[in-house]
Write a structure and sequence with these properties.
The complex is a heterodimer of chains A (about 190) and B (about 250).
Chain A lengths: L2 H17 L6 H8 L3 H7 L3 H27 L3 H17 L7 H8 L6 H23 L5 H21 L5 H15 L4
Helix pairs in contact in A: 1-2, 1-4, 4-5, 4-7, 5-7, 5-9, 6-7, 7-8, 8-9
Chain B lengths: L6 H8 L5 H17 L15 H14 L4 H21 L5 H17 L4 H34 L5 H17 L5 H15 L2 E3 L8 H12 L7 H11 L3 E3 L3 H4 L4
Antiparallel strand pairs in B: 1-2
Classes of the chains: A mainly alpha (about 190), B mainly alpha (about 250).
Chain lengths: ~190, ~250
């Protein structure tokens, strides 16, 4: 990937998260990135494609970070699912947290036919699937059900945190997640 | 009609249960019923800023529940309900609202189950007292033989007088003994290791409520035997689950 393309992508990621996707115009992106519209459109044929690229990269980065953390610091499948919310809480409460791409995008593009909404929904589903696979490895009977409960807790807490920084919602979501995990029947 | 903004939903919640927890959790049942009802035009605004009336109602219920952060709990639960309803609309039959209800219930527990911050202090005090008691015992062992030899403490008169004083003290003294304190401490410690469901404070008679909140929910040792007896009655009503089912079946 060219350095300029990377810079446009990084700038757009920050601006979308801090100012909102719809409120950030292409003019602002090129100005902050120190480039031109022509260059931006050379790499991304439209703003919509740029948004989709930003969402894809953000989600990949999040999944990779979470996976690396769990693989390096959790001892076994049960430990992985127990630690999931510990790491998420660390991330959400860190001063550098600027929001979760697919959650913000889903709120800004509520129309189900919109490609941005569709990608956000798909990423939400992928995250739920990821939790389900952790639950399944930990022998939870209803892995999909537990994954749905945990993802609803997680997404709600991130939304609350996006609305009000330092809300503490993730701390209680973590406690609730532990109650659900400990109470989930296993095979 | 956007159901999350409707007065109808508040009315339905109000009559759904006699308890604040029941009224909050009914949100998910009502939404589930509503989504499957015939001739309903489904409309939801995925933005809590437009659902202040519902959030305010849930905040009142959370306050009555004794939640640590009522407004945060209310907002989080409404967000969960919104997301679950949206998922149910997108994937009918996914049972999203049923799972959301479980998540909300866990969130209520997380905000109403008390931490045990006092236990660390109590634990520390017990350690200090333990060390002190050991020292006294050690000194006693060293000094007692010489006292017995002098026979100064064990006259029959002295013993009789001491027995009377002890009886008197037992009649008047309502302080907890070390045994009482350590028994209570063991109960607190045991509860801390489980997931416990406490009876709602509003169901406790007014005269006992302060003791219940302080000595059962708050985990603070009662200061006298009367309070201890009352606290023990309510400790019996706390239901705890000590089985970490997931951990029990985990493979390393």
């Amino acid at each position: 990937m060219s350095i300029l393309r990377e810079k446009i992508l990084a700038t757009a990621t920050t601006l979308f998260q801090t100012q909102g996707i719809n409120s950030t115009g292409v003019d602002t992106i090129v100005e902050v990135a120190g480039t031109t519209k022509m260059t931006l459109y050379k790499y991304f044929r439209s703003k919509e494609l740029l948004i989709l690229e930003v969402l894809t990269h953000s989600h990949q980065d999040f999944q990779k970070w979470l996976n690396d953390k769990l693989n390096s610091q959790a001892k076994n499948p049960s430990d992985k699912i127990q630690k999931l919310f510990d790491f998420i809480e660390e991330w959400v409460t860190s001063p550098d947290f600027i929001g979760m791409g697919f959650i913000k995008a889903s709120a800004e593009f509520p129309n189900e036919d919109n490609p941005v909404h569709q990608l956000s929904s798909e990423q939400s589903r992928q995250f739920r699937q990821y939790i389900s696979s952790l639950a399944s490895e930990a022998n939870v009977q209803d892995a999909d059900g537990l994954a749905l409960q945990l993802s609803l807790l997680f997404e709600g807490a991130v939304q609350a945190e996006q609305m009000k920084r330092g809300s503490g919602a993730m701390t209680y979501a973590k406690k609730a997640a532990k109650i659900l995990i400990d109470g989930a029947p296993t095979k | 009609m956007d159901i999350f903004k409707s007065q109808w939903l508040i009315k339905m919640l109000e009559k759904s249960s006699n308890t604040p927890q029941g009224r909050i959790l009914s949100l998910f049942d009502i939404l589930d019923d509503w989504l499957t009802a015939p001739s309903i035009h489904v409309k939801i605004t995925p933005d809590t800023a437009h659902n202040q009336q519902l959030i305010s109602y849930c905040t009142e219920q959370a306050l009555a529940l004794g939640a640590s952060h009522p407004s945060m709990l209310a907002e989080h639960i409404v967000l969960i309900a919104l997301n679950a309803a949206q998922q149910e609309i997108n994937n009918p039959g996914s049972r999203s609202l049923g799972h959301a209800k479980k998540a909300a219930n866990a969130l209520i527990l997380a905000q109403t189950q008390k931490e045990w911050p006092l236990l660390k202090a109590v634990n520390y005090k017990f350690s200090v007292y333990g060390v002190a008691a050991s020292l006294v015992l050690l000194i006693g062992i060293m000094v007692l033989p010489s006292l017995i030899e002098n026979n100064s403490l064990f006259s029959s008169q002295a013993t009789a007088s001491k027995n009377d004083n002890t009886k008197l003290a037992l009649l008047n003294n309502t302080n907890l003994s070390a045994q009482d304190a350590s028994t209570m401490y063991a109960k607190y410690e045991q509860m801390r290791n489980g997931t416990c469901q406490f009876p709602e404070a509003l169901q406790i008679p007014d005269k006992d409520r302060a003791i219940y909140l302080e000595n059962v929910v708050g985990g603070k040792l009662p200061t006298n035997l009367n309070d201890l007896a009352i606290a023990n009655i309510y400790l019996e009503k706390v239901r705890c689950n000590f089985t970490p089912m997931l951990m029990a079946h985990s493979t390393s």
